[in-house]
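anyone seen this seq b4? input:
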Amino acid sequence: MFEEFRRGVLDGARVEPGDTVLDVGCGEGLIGFGALELVGEGGRVIFSDISQDVLGVCREIADGDPRCEFVRAPADDVPLADASVDVLTTRSTLIYLEDKARTLREFFRILRSGGRLSMFEPINSFGWPEPGDRWCGYDVTPVRELAAKVKARRSRDDRVLVGWDERDVLRWLEAAGFDDVDVSVEYEVKPRPMTGIVTWDAFRNHAPNPLSPTLQEAMDDALTREEQERFVVHVRPLVERGEGSYRMASAYIRALKT
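predicted toks r here
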């Protein structure tokens, strides 16, 4: 799956030898190191992330490659000069930011004339909110009222993740100044869990995204001990048997600064 994301973003970026590429929210370098293979000896890749830890991982992988630079910064305030990069890439970064329109204006500022923006973003509003009898794709009809409490706890942290879709991104891009934009959305509805997590301990200690609590944290906050026991007795076997499902929408977004 991650290789597919990288290929989609890099295909949209149309990286050429000699380009300067900025990978925003680089994580451990999935996109950035793919771009490094394309810029040639005369190009460079700037890895930018708010986390010093993941930048440290990228530094280790780069192993002193002089074409690699590292910038610790939030995605909406990158300390680079106006019109200083040829390509800007990002994967699953915009989704976590409060002011998405401001972030896209920042991307426009940093790109040179003729610069390319290529992004991959999940569109969580496609699968949210779930029906009352579903929780993370599992049938929770017998414990519906408990699932509602857990959903309510998680929704406090998910407020920036939903309530927008690819049409909003298109509108924000145009407002930022981009006038050559392509948005491709892929929809998936699958009769199986998305995460592949089949052990209960792994599942209850897993957070679906950096802004959300783990299931265990949400249960501790939202349910009494007796309610937790009822919830777990129902949900745990479903998880361990892999009886969940998922709905997902993903957008590949490409824009040109003309």
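The longest strand covers residues 111-122. Residues 126-158+190-246 form one domain. kinda curious what u guys think
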